Amino acid sequence: MVAGTALIAGPFLLGLDAAAIVTGVLVGTLAVALGLAGTEPGARGTLPLSAQAVYDRGLALGLLLSAVIFAAAGQIEAMALFAVAGIAALVMTSVTRYSSRAT
Fold this sequence. Notes:
The chain is mainly α. Helices cover 75% and strands 0% of the residues.
């Protein structure tokens, strides 16, 4: 949730180009939606834990790919933002235990 919100606001605050702003808003919105979809295990409208794990890893890899594309376009600030977000997402997915807790 925090990373998604940062991706939405970050490009505006850093004064990045339109491509970085659009990418940040789209990916940030997706990250927030994924965060909300995984908040209530077993409830209607939530994702299965296995799907949540796959989506989290896909989001991280997509962020890193976006960083590579922005680097190739010469937008170093956008590259740094998306690379940091992608690395943070990969770290979070590597330390997250994707299993339900007994309540």
